[in-house]
Amino acid sequence: MFGSDGVQLFQRMAGGRPWRSDRRLLLRSEHFPLEARGREIVTQQGLTIAVAGDPAMSAEIVRRLNNSDRSDQEDQWAL
Prior knowledge:
Layout: E1 35-37, E2 40-42, E3 48-51, H1 55-78
Antiparallel strand pairs: 1-2, 2-3
Protein backbone atom coordinates (compact mmCIF):
# COMPACT_ATOMS: atom_id res chain seq x y z
CA MET A 1 0.00 0.00 0.00
CA PHE A 2 2.24 2.82 1.23
CA GLY A 3 6.03 2.76 1.19
CA SER A 4 7.00 -0.07 -1.11
CA ASP A 5 10.66 0.42 -0.17
CA GLY A 6 10.03 -0.77 3.38
CA VAL A 7 10.50 2.64 4.96
CA GLN A 8 8.60 3.02 8.19
CA LEU A 9 5.87 5.53 7.42
CA PHE A 10 4.92 6.55 10.90
CA GLN A 11 7.02 7.11 13.94
CA ARG A 12 5.97 8.27 17.34
CA MET A 13 7.57 11.57 18.14
CA ALA A 14 8.23 10.76 21.80
CA GLY A 15 11.40 8.72 21.90
CA GLY A 16 11.11 7.55 18.32
CA ARG A 17 9.24 4.44 19.34
CA PRO A 18 6.91 2.77 16.81
CA TRP A 19 3.24 3.74 17.11
CA ARG A 20 1.38 1.67 19.65
CA SER A 21 -2.20 1.65 20.81
CA ASP A 22 -2.57 3.76 23.94
CA ARG A 23 -5.87 5.01 25.38
CA ARG A 24 -4.32 8.40 26.15
CA LEU A 25 -3.28 8.88 22.52
CA LEU A 26 -6.58 8.19 20.76
CA LEU A 27 -7.77 10.91 18.45
CA ARG A 28 -10.88 12.62 19.75
CA SER A 29 -13.16 15.14 18.08
CA GLU A 30 -11.42 18.02 19.85
CA HIS A 31 -8.20 17.15 17.97
CA PHE A 32 -9.85 17.84 14.60
CA PRO A 33 -9.38 19.18 12.07
CA LEU A 34 -5.89 17.77 11.68
CA GLU A 35 -3.27 19.63 9.67
CA ALA A 36 -0.32 18.53 7.54
CA ARG A 37 2.86 20.51 8.17
CA GLY A 38 5.39 19.06 5.79
CA ARG A 39 5.75 15.42 6.82
CA GLU A 40 4.16 15.99 10.25
CA ILE A 41 0.50 15.38 11.12
CA VAL A 42 -0.56 17.91 13.74
CA THR A 43 -3.69 18.25 15.90
CA GLN A 44 -5.67 21.44 16.29
CA GLN A 45 -3.79 22.05 19.55
CA GLY A 46 -0.42 21.85 17.79
CA LEU A 47 0.55 18.36 19.02
CA THR A 48 2.46 16.33 16.43
CA ILE A 49 0.90 12.86 16.40
CA ALA A 50 2.75 11.24 13.49
CA VAL A 51 5.34 11.74 10.79
CA ALA A 52 4.64 10.42 7.29
CA GLY A 53 7.17 9.28 4.70
CA ASP A 54 6.75 12.45 2.64
CA PRO A 55 4.61 15.64 2.57
CA ALA A 56 2.19 14.30 -0.07
CA MET A 57 1.47 11.23 2.05
CA SER A 58 0.97 13.40 5.12
CA ALA A 59 -1.56 15.55 3.25
CA GLU A 60 -3.46 12.48 2.02
CA ILE A 61 -3.61 10.92 5.50
CA VAL A 62 -4.86 14.20 6.98
CA ARG A 63 -7.49 14.51 4.23
CA ARG A 64 -8.78 11.00 4.90
CA LEU A 65 -8.81 11.36 8.68
CA ASN A 66 -10.60 14.73 8.52
CA ASN A 67 -13.18 13.32 6.08
CA SER A 68 -13.73 10.33 8.36
CA ASP A 69 -14.22 12.54 11.40
CA ARG A 70 -16.62 14.80 9.47
CA SER A 71 -18.60 11.75 8.35
CA ASP A 72 -18.75 10.41 11.93
CA GLN A 73 -20.06 13.76 13.17
CA GLU A 74 -22.74 13.81 10.45
CA ASP A 75 -23.77 10.26 11.35
CA GLN A 76 -24.21 11.24 15.01
CA TRP A 77 -26.54 14.08 14.08
CA ALA A 78 -28.52 11.84 11.69
CA LEU A 79 -29.56 9.44 14.46
